Amino acid sequence: MTIALFSHCSNWKFIPRQMKKAGTQALRAKITGVVGIIVFLSGMSASMLPAQTASTPSTPAQTTSSATASTRDGVYTAEQAQQGKTLYTQLCIECHGASLEGMGQNPSLTGDDFLNNWQGQTLADLFTRIRTTMPALKPGSLTPAETALLVAYILDANTFPSGKTVLPADPVPLKAIHIDAPQAKP
Ligand code: HEC
Fold first, then answer.
1. Half-sphere exposure of 133 toward its Cβ, with a 13 Å CA cutoff?
2. HEC readout, 60-119
3. pLDDT category, 56, cuts 50, 70, 90?
4. Could you tell me the CA-to-CA distances from 89 to 28, 105, 123, 147, 148 in Å, in that order?
5. Does ligand 1 come within 6 angstroms of the Cβ of 169?
6. Quick check: 115 and 123 in contact, CB under 8 A?
């Protein structure tokens, strides 16, 4: 406003020096005032906002520590695989073969064919698939414990390493274990 007023004053140069000076000072004072108000206002809104920002709890470190595991990490014990083999011989061998090689309509449970189907999924997926659809003529008859043993045996047959960790018989923790290729691709 003040700027407009002064620039529109065509005979600015005829205004006595004293007045010019006073005008400039007034302008300066106005600007300082406006800036002051802006600073004050932004200060106010800033002091009103932090209530939200400050109350946001800082993310606990644990949330990132539930990092995913891989079938390469030794996620079952050798004992589980051994027990799984016994079960497999009783319940699965007739269709999937002695070396899990499959036969006819019955798919292989080992090697590239099998791994290509399952890579990128988790052990929860494989667990649930077996538990709900196998053995094909009696689906749903396996207990969670039996299913975990069969998963352990299938991992062993696919050359995934065993370890000290017992494979859980529960799809919730199994969801954190990703099915990867047995060895890192070169
Ligand atoms: C009567 C034959 C038969 C028996 C017994 C049987 N399966 Fe199967 N299985 C199949 C057939 C057929 C398929 C493919 C079609 C389907 O999923 O129903 C299959 C698919 C599978 C798959 C999915 C393979 C993939 O790559 O998608 C898994 C894992 C599996 N069976 C595990 C088992 C286990 C473990 C047992 C023993 C508890 C078992 N099966 C017993 C016939 C059988």
1. 7
2. CCHHHHCCCEEHHHCCCCHHHHHHHHHHHHHHCHHHHCCCCCCECCECCCCHHHHHHHHC
3. very low
4. 94, 19, 21, 14, 15
5. no
6. no
142, pLDDT greater than 80: yes
**In angstroms, rounded to a whole number, what is the distance separating the alpha carbons of residues 144 and 127?**
8
Average pLDDT value for residue range 40-64? 44
Rounded CA separation 147/169 (Å): 7
* Contact indicator for 32, 39 with CB cutoff of 8 Å: no
Q: Establish whether residue 117 lines the binding site of ligand 1, counting it when its CB lies within 6 angstroms of any ligand atom.
A: yes
Which of 106, 118, 142, 174 is the best mutation target for the ligand 1 pocket, counting ligand atoms within 8 Å of the beta carbon and taking the most? Answer: 106
Confidence (pLDDT) at 60: 44
Residue appearing with tokens 């954190």: 176
Q: Check: CB of residue 144 under 8 Å from CB of residue 100.
A: no
